[in-house]
Amino acid sequence: MNPFSSGTRLRDMIRAIRACKTAAEERGVVRKECAAIRAAINENDNDYRHRNLAKLMFIHMLGYPTHFGQMECLKLIASSEFPEKRIGYLGLMLLLDERQEVLMLVTNSLKQDLNHSNQYIVGLALCALGNICSAEMARDLAPEVERLLQFRDPNTRKKAALCAIRIIRKVPDLAENFINPAAALLKEKHHGVLITGVQLCTDLCKASADALEYFREKCTEGLVKTLKDVANSPYAPEYDIAGITDPFLHIRLLKLLRVLGQGDADASDLMNDILAQVATKTESNKNAGNAILYECVETIMSIEDNGGLRVLAINILGRFLSNRDNNIRYVALNMLMKAITVDAQAVQRHRATILECVKDSDASIRKRALELVYLLINESNVKPLTKELIDYLEVSDQEFKGDLTAKICSIIAKFSPEKIWYIDQMLKVLSEAGNFVKDEVWHALIVVISNASDLHGYTVRALYRALQTSVEQESLVRVAVWCIGEYGDMLINNVGMLDIEDPITVTESDAVDIIELAIKRHTSDLTTKAMSLIALLKLSSRFPSCSERIRDIIVQNRGNLVLELQQRSIEFNSIIQKHQNIRSALVERMPVLDEATFIGRRAGSMPATVSTSNGASLNLPNGVAKPSAAPLVDLLDLSLDDAPAPSSSGGDFLQDLLGVDLSPASNQSGTNQASKTGTDVLLDLLSIETPPVQSSSSPPDVLSSIQDNKSPVASLEELALPSSLSGQATTPVGAAPMMDLLDGFVSNPPKPENNGSVYPSVVAFESSALRITFDFSKPPGNPQTTSVQATFTNLSPNVYTDFIFQAAVPKFLQLHLDPASSNTLPATGNGSITQNLRVTNSQHGKKSLVMRIRIAYKINDKDVLEEGQISNFPRGL
Amino acid sequence: MGIRFILMVNKQGQTRLAQYYEYLTLEERRALEGEIVRKCLARNEQQCSFVEHRNYKIVYRRYASLFFLVGVDNDENELAILEFIHLLVETMDRHFGNVCELDIMFHLEKAHFMLEEMVMNGCIVETSKTNILQPIQLMEKTS
């Protein structure tokens, strides 16, 4: 019987499978065949083993599991007949992989076959080894392979070379053994051996630096000569492809030369001639020629600089770029990306062509071209290029829009020469593709808008106009709603008109209309609606005539099923109705959002640990461990150098709270620039607005608008209502007492008395048991920093132990605490503790220092806690 | 490194030959094949033969009813792989004489043998058709 003819049975099986009309039928047929094969395996059927294996391979290709056939492969390999061995090895390579333990059983057979007298069998074994050997097998059989690298038959040598590549990859330590034999291979004439030898050398160079050195010294010239021979060789029918002898060998040689020449000037010199020859003489009307040119250009770009060659290379690139064949253009774009690092000027010359490619109909080319354009942008060409890209954005198709939008946004963010241009471009992008824009992008836009104070009027009017036309773009709606809420009065009164603007009349009710639309639209999502609500609140303060109407709109959401909206609507309603006296203060214009902090925070200032620790802090205001507090505190620009951990667990709670500054710079309604989970959660505790995704906020973002001086006190009020802070939902009931507390709240911050430039020491804090005195000094040359020496005096007859002083400051201050002189405060003023602090005031001259403090100590092992606020710092600090 | 897999798929998306040079489980393979084939089949004649997929590239070419897909690393020379596909087809053509899809299906192991002679472990071994076909013809003579 001819073991090679598949026999009618394999053919029948294939026919049967082809005849199946449905997947279920096919599964049935396959299952039957597998059962038959399994039965045959159990019977140890010798005759049909190979046929069964062939069937198994077909079934495996279709995607069915065939692991029961693995032992069959082993049996076939062990047989002495060549055909059976052959199919056994094939089965081995297809059905098994290196992770199976069964593979180890083959090692012995492999070893025998590697030493076989029949060179074809040796070849089989090398092939199998080369494709799937594992690390252990590699180690075992490496010596054999080494020996075979010098075998008489070139076919064996070439296979041994590729086998060696795999061994080196699996066991890099063995690389040294192969260096010498590999170098010998490079002198061969047989193309097969040569190509595999070159590949082996390339891999060796990558695996070991010694090998790289060795080859660089010894073999570069030989390689150059070989390449020259191949390039100049006469017509060889065997290896000829499209008039070029063995282009694959050309390419491999060029690759190896690249590896050798990279970073080494001498080697690069040796190659210059041959590279020039290949670059100029190769015909480029056929694909094979182009492939060689491509490789050549890559090599020229990677090796050490040679002006003439580089020019040659860029010319070839230019030719490729204008070729009509898409493949060639794709390849050219690829190369240009690498060429940019080498010679940006030359690439800039092709800018127009590249821009055309962005609009190409072929998806791969578009993608490449877009990346290339991104790399080409610099300050001088950013405006026209961005204009082109945005124009294209309108006509591009959906899958591409996402990529394109992201790239345009990052270009705008990186290179915008002036704020007005930034805002304009971002508005255009938002109008076109707002739904593809990521959250950070429009957060950043809001930060920029708030920083560009002279452009507020212009921006809000532009947004209003944009909103008339592109209502479906969610991000646009959000930004517009925020701006209209903030700068509504500028919109109505046409404040700050720039010359380029057309006049536009917007009445108060128009503004309210548009926000109402944003709420009512059923496609608006939660964030947009939430932002709209607060914008309405702001407008109710800025346009008192519309107050009633706004209240009506807000009230409609009182019964909304979403807790966030319901809560907001009830609380805002309550503010409008009952608390007009504080309403304007609550929704005053936000101060400029700090760009630098925002960028810093966005750039990954959140350590990964914070989010987990913040989970804890949300649930248990009282139970946060000290280590988790520290990263939080750092995040919020507060350096709090504490002495050993506070003794009471409640301490961290307060420290966390104090550590958060409620200054509006850190938040805004509906969006949170520090939009990472950590600060959100913490700000949750302190009733600052968060995106509804997270837990619902406590008493509303009303507090978020409070001025700095008020906020620390406000948080203290909240401390008195732990019920409204713990965990998740707060009820409106919780809100009401809050409001009442605020009613009784004195709005004037205490004014510091001292106006002199001499800074007298002040008694910062005095209670029946303790006095704290602050002495001030200014280090020379830095008017913003103040050194404070705090002296603690014990006014009671008891000794205080474990004395710890903590302080918290608002956002615009930075505090640094040195360790205290001691932890024990002797009684009745017999001694004192001193501690140095350094305060840096970023708003020096505009705002004075304010500090909240907390002192914890023990009297006879009983914990005592004192807190207070120090606002009597001398002015001018 | 180099070539990661070679697939021959017909226009209906059925795999006719699959040779992987890196390890993938069966489910991964089916998923991969499905995805890639959909992408390639959706493209028309004018578009270029290179598709980027995850972290590697697919170079493909259509011959009659069969698509030849080769997955390669990102740093591989795509035009060379295109040449290689053509070489593969020509070799099979020389052996089978006017090769068609059915030839490959019914003589799957021979197709595999040929591929084995040409590519090993993701690297191109031999590019001369005579050298490739010699052991196979020898086998056929002895059987």
Relevant terms:
heterodimer, A: 877 residues, alpha+beta, 5-stranded antiparallel β-sheet, 3-stranded antiparallel β-sheet, 38 helices, elongated, disordered N terminus, B: 143 residues, two-stranded antiparallel sheet, 7 strands, 26% strand, globular
Concise summary:
Chain A has 877 residues and is of the alpha+beta class.
Write the layout of secondary structure elements.
The complex is a heterodimer of chains A (877) and B (143).
Chain A: H1 7-19, H2 23-42, H3 49-62, H4 70-78, H5 82-95, H6 102-114, H7 119-132, H8 135-148, H9 154-170, H10 175-185, H11 191-207, H12 209-232, E1 240-241, E2 244-245, H13 247-261, H14 265-281, H15 287-302, H16 307-321, H17 326-342, H18 344-349, H19 351-358, H20 363-376, H21 382-395, H22 398-415, H23 419-433, H24 439-451, H25 456-469, H26 474-493, H27 508-520, H28 526-542, H29 547-555, H30 563-578, H31 580-586, H32 595-602, H33 608-619, H34 626-635, H35 650-659, H36 677-685, H37 711-719, H38 732-743, E3 762-766, E4 770-777, E5 785-794, E6 801-808, E7 813-817, E8 832-841, E9 851-859, E10 862-870
Antiparallel strand pairs in A: 1-2, 3-4, 4-5, 5-8, 6-9, 7-8, 9-10
Chain B: E1 3-10, E2 15-20, H1 26-42, E3 50-53, E4 56-63, E5 66-72, H2 78-96, H3 101-106, H4 108-118, E6 119-120, E7 123-124, H5 129-142
Antiparallel strand pairs in B: 1-2, 1-5, 3-4, 4-5, 6-7
Strand residues, percent of chain A: 5-15%
Strand order of the largest sheet of chain A: 3-4-5-8-7
Q: How many β-strand runs of chain B?
A: 7
Distance between termini of chain B?
36 Å
Contiguous low-pLDDT stretches of chain A (5 residues minimum) are: 1-7, 605-757
Summarize the structure in words:
The complex is a heterodimer of chains A (877) and B (143). By secondary structure, chain A is of the alpha+beta class. Chain A contains 38 helices and 10 strands. In chain A, the strands form 3 sheets. A 5-stranded antiparallel sheet of chain A has the order 3-4-5-8-7, with no helix packed on it. Chain A has a 3-stranded antiparallel sheet with strand order 6-9-10, with helices on one face. In chain A, helix 4 (70-78) runs parallel beside helix 6 (102-114). The N and C termini of chain A lie far apart (103 Å). Residues 1-7 and 605-757 of chain A have low confidence and may be disordered. By secondary structure, chain B is of the alpha+beta class. Helices cover 47% and strands 26% of the residues of chain B. Chain B is built from 5 helices and 7 strands; from the N terminus they run ββαβββαααββα. Chain B has helices spanning 26-42, 78-96, 101-106, 108-118, 129-142, and strands at 3-10, 15-20, 50-53, 56-63, 66-72, 119-120, 123-124. Chain B is globular. At the A-B interface, helix 3, helix 5, helix 7, helix 9 and helix 11 of A face strand 2, helix 1, strand 3, helix 2 and helix 4 of B.
